[in-house]
Amino acid sequence: MSWRDSLRTKLMLWFGLLVGVLLLLGFVAAFLIARQLIIAGAQERTRYEAAQTAARLHASMESVRITGASMIGIFDNLALDREATIKTLQALLDADASTVGGLIALEPGVLPDGAPMAYYVGVERRGVADRDLIALGYNVAQQPWYRRTLSADKPWWSEPYFNETAGGHWMTTLNLPLRGRHGARLGMVSLDVPIARWSDLVQPLHRIRGQRPALFAPGGTIALHADPKAALKTTLDGYIAVAGRSDLQDMSAARAQGRRFAFTHVLPTTGETRYSVLEPIADTGWALQVSMSHKPLLAELKRTIVRLALIAVLALLLCALLVRRMAARITTPLSDLTGSASHFADGEFDYPLHQTDRRDEVGVMARAFDNARGSIKRQMVEIQDMSTARQKLESELDIAREIQLAMLPGARVLGTDGWRLQANARLEPAKAVGGDFYSFFERDSHTLWFAIGDVSDKGVPAALFMARTMTVLEIAAGLGGSPEIALKEAAQRLLEGNDTCMFATVLCGLIDARSGEFALASAGHEPPALLGADGSARFIELPSGPPLGVAVAEHYPIWRGRLRSGDALVAYTDGVTEAFDAEQRPFGNERLLASLRGTAEPGTLCGNLVADVHRFAAGAAQSDDITVLSLHWSGGGDDASGMRAALHFLAPQDRARLPDVFASVEAALAEAGVERERIGDVRLIVEEVMCNAIDYGGQSGGHEVSLELGIGRDRVDLLFRDDGRPFDPLAQAPPDLDADVQDRPLGGLGLYLIRSLADEAAYAREGRYNVLRIVLLRPDAGE
């Protein structure tokens, strides 16, 4: 045995795979937990650092504000002159570590001398000198920042600007309005703070790896930023637009609203994940952003995981080697048994078998092999006997199939020079033998009996019941009579001794080969289809009785019709419509009608339909027997009067639905070009006869009332059938039309109207049917 197929190799690999998966899951879980803890700790630290740095910045800015407010308070309370004002401001600036200079500008008339004042006091030790702006010709009163300060209600910080006169540094200025006791605008005090001062306060944030601060002025100018192209060169909104930093848009909105904002975002340019905190600096308008990158936080964690993974792989390899050594001690006896089993596979059942004396599982297996060896020998003998018996059974089933198929009749052709009737059928059982059948034989030279059926089972039992059903039907049909009588006789015979409760659905009928007229009766079978000479196809709405073998029905309704020249009648079993494809979709009625719209020659029609069923199933197993029977009639066309094939109408049991039948009759007459006058006469006769038959037929629970309508060039034939009590409407006495209405008995007027409108009328009782034939001549019949 190859080492690749060895059990010890598989044990080692499976053990290694299991341990490896567990280790991998452990590493993944540990990594995710550690990652979450590290990120959460870093975020907490970032929020803390942002709050602390914002507090330091606020303290420095507050000291500047206090310096300015002190200057205003001193000036307001002591009414200083020009020199005292300058000295006071110098003293305050020296005491404030954040400022490098300050400006005091006063309106005319504020000082005792009445002159305006605009004097900039610089802190000399910080490299900034004093300047008298009025003496230098600088008009402070016209500057926008001066006018804004005079109208302001509180101090405000300016945007960063580059101040060349103050040592060439970037500055920001706190501007404070100076008001009199009664609110008069006296001037302003402004204090300059280098941006470097804020940078020094923010500097500790750079010491943490991956952490970056940014400082935004009240107007959105970026005062401090890690990107030198952004610091002191653009606003936050401008940076977002130019650098494509859409991840900062929500933060920019929060800064404009002066609210705290913390969020995790991904840089669109690099894909780097960061956690940022925006911390407003009290109500100064300044805001501090502290951003922490995830990448350096997780780098050390990843390195630690990789080192641990390498150690785990080495330990896994060592364990796998130990497992292989242990598995070798277990699998060596199994290898011995495997060698013996290979000889068994070659048919060497007498090959020596070792390990049978062991007391462990290997010994149990060896003894089981030994017992199996003897059992296999015995079973091989039994299999040989069963194979012989099966061959004999298959041979007998083949013979039974041939006998069953031999029972079925071959194609039939009846005809003379004036008419021709062809009959053909095809049967394909789902098993060797089946339960479907068909039959046709000539009662005389022009009458053909035909039948098709489906037994409720398959295989040999169905074949036996099928043979019995065929025999009973043919005997009953040979005795003469209608298809109804044949079905009733067969139902009685099949019910006797039917302990297996099998049954058969049957469609049988008679057809007159001279005229194409036929009669059908159904015992629970599928309705046949009528294929017109014009290629149309439709189902016949045939009433049905119960299947044969279940019960004996009181009667099986007969449906009568006539084939026109070129028409075909097609009967089939449910093996056609219920053939399923691989997706369990049935062949169905629509596909059946579509398949019939082609040739009407019976042999070709049956073959094409069966072939279409097989193509639809596309290799799926045949679930039921398939049987098709077809009759094709061709004659001399219309008779001398141009009479067309009879149209069949069946009255519904619900009297309220009779108008639908009357409308269908009128539509057929109109389509055939019958005169409007005659259509009205036909409507009156049909309504009177059908309503009387339904209302006074004497049948409880409803009964059969039908009409066959024939339309010719010179006449309209009406043939009514009903299974009610015997009644001859033509034999009734006519009403006395001269008598008064109140003295005239009810009824009789409708029958009188029928006799008055009819050109010909005849009544007969045929079996259990009343048959009334009425002929109406068309107006141009005599021309």
From TrEMBL:
Keywords assigned by UniProt, alphabetized: Coiled coil, Hydrolase, Kinase, Membrane, Phosphoprotein, Transferase, Transmembrane, Transmembrane helix
Pfam families: HAMP (PF00672), HATPase_c_2 (PF13581), MCP-like_PDC_1 (PF22673), SpoIIE (PF07228)
Keyword Protease among UniProt keywords: no
Subcellular location: Membrane
Domain HAMP as annotated: residue spans: 328-381
Coiled-coil segments: 376-403
Record bears the keyword Disulfide bond: no
CDD domains noted in UniProt: HAMP, HATPase_RsbW-like, PDC1_MCP_like
InterPro entries in UniProt: Bact_Sigma-Reg, HAMP_dom, HATPase_C_sf, HATPase_dom, PPM-type-like_dom_sf, PPM-type_phosphatase-like_dom
Transmembrane segment boundaries: 12-34
UniProt protein name: SpoIIE family protein phosphatase
